[in-house]
Amino acid sequence: MLRDVATLMLETGMRPEEVYRIQPENVNLASGFLFNPHGKTKAARRWVPLNTSAKSVLACRMEGLETPFLFPCETDPMRPVPKVNNAHDRAVRDSNVARFRLYDLRHTWATRAAESGIDLVTLAALLGHSKIQMVLRYAHPTQEHQARSVERLEQHNAARQMEALLLEQGVAAGMIQ
């Protein structure tokens, strides 16, 4: 269960509670979306696009499902699992990786999305935020990404200067003839 929750968070940017409460009737694998009807705000109630990995996890969890939730509680399958924090903490401890919170997977998704070029307005909508300012708490561009961005800006500026120079030369050449 923990692996599937973590995968969905990392592949969709959903909050843990949103993943726990996924119901099969809100998943449309054919269209590549799931609907999150729950949320702290109106913006959190949203359609979430699914990539191949997320669709694969959801398809497996929906196969032969006999409960209303894809992540049912062990003691009462009619309710969603309340948390997987203990399993997460145990897995992190046993694997000897650097400590991180399950919620950090949402931050990782947001950072990757921002680094891939998704604009802040779209990123806010995908994360279920009503304000762009909230995105700034989630997206943490690396120093390497910032350096690549400045390189792209430099290339862009050089291309614009070259276009201006060629245009100027073309105009001058037309005046001479």
Question: What would you say this structure looks like, in words?
Answer:
It is a single chain. Helices cover 56% and strands 6% of the residues. The protein has a 3-stranded antiparallel beta sheet, with no helix packed on it. It has 8 helices and 3 strands; from the N terminus they run H-H-E-E-E-H-H-H-H-H-H. A hairpin with a 4-residue loop joins strand 1 and strand 2 (33-36). The mean pLDDT is 83. 23% of the residues are buried. It has helices at 2-12, 16-20, 52-62, 85-95, 104-115, 120-127, 132-138, 143-176; strands at 27-28, 33-36, 46-49. It has a domain at 2-105. It is mostly helical.
Short account of what is shown:
The protein has 8 helices and 3 strands, in the order ααβββαααααα.
Binned strand content:
5-15%
Low-confidence stretches: none
SSE string, helix = H, strand = E? Answer: HHEEEHHHHHH
Oligomer: single chain
Number of strands: 3
Query: What spatial form do the alpha-carbon principal axes imply?
Result: elongated
CA-CA gap between termini: 76 Å
Mean pLDDT: 83
Largest sheet: 3 strands, antiparallel
Structural class assignment: mainly alpha
Q: Report the helical percentage.
A: 55-70%
Rg, alpha carbons: 23 Å
List the helices and strands and how they pair.
Blueprint: H1 2-12, H2 16-20, E1 27-28, E2 33-36, E3 46-49, H3 52-62, H4 85-95, H5 104-115, H6 120-127, H7 132-138, H8 143-176
Helix pairs in contact: 1-3, 1-5
